[in-house]
């Protein structure tokens, strides 16, 4: 089975153009399911659709989030489609399995005041502070994923025209407006040549570590946690929180769903629609607070 999984991962890399991070996630998800089958005394040849459903329920009971469960299911669906195409399985048992809609959770978002506090948290004249301020401003201005932020190249940022180009999932390119505040923050960062600034950048990457290498996911995570604490934000905040806040605030301001979908780089508009639930939740809160018979 390990050979089948390796061939499947090679297929995703060559035919689908998936990123290394996505490939590794798919491998982990499939191996997790194989371990589940082993625990219940089965293997790939004897697995049935109900086994996948039981596996998903086990993930839910373990506390896994809805989006992670959906990713596990997506990995299994794609894997079984590959097995059938390669004549390694006679039936795609994962095809008809659906993630129950009741598992869908509304993402945590910051309100506008909390975003302002977070963006104002990096203070000082150091090169690293200018970099951190620019990262936070770009994340909120564009809604880019963490992987897209760390892989951003200098040549992909057009400060004159006010947009940024990024490479999303599956190598799909998209253009997102940057906004004047984020433009100014990036200019300040690029013009900062303090003693802590790296002498040169790795292959033209925009956001660098002090060693001159592209900033890592771990560094971005720690940086956001640090400034959230400094800003007095008590919510559970992750690098994705600014992406969620970006989408929510756009829709609250009257932006069209299709436009937000394009800026987020969602292949399916149903993924973007989760943010309309956030709006409805907010409206419900207003109704309950102010309506005399709520």
Helical amount: 55-70%
CATH topology (level 3) name of the largest domain = hpI Integrase, Chain A
Major sheet strand order: 1-2-3
Assign the CATH class of the largest domain. Answer: Mainly Alpha
Structural class from helices and strands? mainly alpha
Q: Would you identify the CATH H-level superfamily of the largest domain?
A: Intergrase catalytic core
Written as H for each helix and E for each strand, in order along the chain, the element string is HHHHHHHEEEHHHHHH
Strand segment count? 3
The number of helices is 13
Task: Return the CATH architecture of the largest domain.
Answer: Orthogonal Bundle
Alpha-carbon Rg, integer: 22 Å
State the end-to-end distance. Answer: 57 Å
The domain count comes to 2
Biggest beta-sheet profile = 3 strands, antiparallel
Q: What are the segments in which pLDDT stays under 50 over at least 5 consecutive residues?
A: none
C-alpha geometry = globular
The fraction of residues assigned to DSSP E strands is: under 5%
Mean pLDDT value:
86
Overall description:
- It contains 13 helices and three strands, in the order H-H-H-H-H-H-H-E-E-E-H-H-H-H-H-H.
- The chain has a three-stranded antiparallel beta sheet with strand order 1-2-3, with no helix packed on it.
- Helix 3 (49-61) packs antiparallel against helix 4 (66-85), helix 6 packs across helix 10 and helix 10 (239-252) packs across helix 13 (274-290).
- It folds into two domains: 2-103, Tyrosine recombinase, N-terminal domain (DNA polymerase, domain 1, Orthogonal Bundle); 112-287, hpI Integrase, Chain A, CATH 1.10.443.10.
- It is mainly alpha-helical and 294 residues long.
């Amino acid at each position: 089975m390990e050979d089948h999984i390796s061939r499947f991962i090679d297929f995703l890399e060559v035919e689908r153009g998936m990123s290394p991070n996505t490939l590794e996630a798919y491998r982990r998800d499939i191996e997790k399911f194989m371990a589940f089958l082993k625990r219940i005394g089965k293997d790939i040849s004897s697995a049935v659709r109900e086994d996948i459903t039981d596996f998903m329920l086990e993930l839910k009971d373990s506390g896994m989030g809805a989006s992670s469960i959906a990713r596990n299911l997506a990995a299994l669906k794609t894997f079984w489609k590959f097995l059938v195409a390669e004549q390694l399985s006679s039936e795609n048992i994962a095809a008809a399995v659906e993630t129950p809609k009741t598992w869908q959770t509304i993402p945590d978002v910051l309100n506008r005041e909390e975003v302002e506090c977070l963006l104002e948290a990096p203070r000082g004249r150091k090169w690293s502070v200018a970099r951190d301020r620019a990262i936070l401003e770009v994340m909120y201005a564009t809604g880019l994923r963490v992987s897209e932020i760390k892989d951003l190249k200098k040549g992909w940022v057009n400060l004159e025209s006010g947009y940024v180009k990024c490479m999303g999932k599956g190598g799909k390119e998209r253009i997102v407006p940057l906004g004047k505040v984020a433009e100014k923050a990036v200019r300040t960062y690029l013009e900062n040549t303090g003693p802590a600034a790296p002498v040169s950048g790795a292959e033209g990457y925009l956001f660098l570590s002090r060693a001159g290498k592209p900033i890592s996911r771990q560094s971005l995570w720690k940086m956001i946690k640090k400034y959230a604490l400094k800003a007095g934000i008590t919510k559970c905040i992750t690098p994705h929180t600014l992406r969620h806040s970006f989408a929510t605030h756009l829709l609250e301001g009257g932006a069209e769903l299709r436009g937000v979908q394009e800026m987020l780089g969602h292949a399916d508009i149903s993924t973007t629609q989760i943010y309309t639930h956030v709006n409805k939740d907010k409206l419900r809160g207003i109704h309950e607070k102010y309506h005399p018979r709520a």
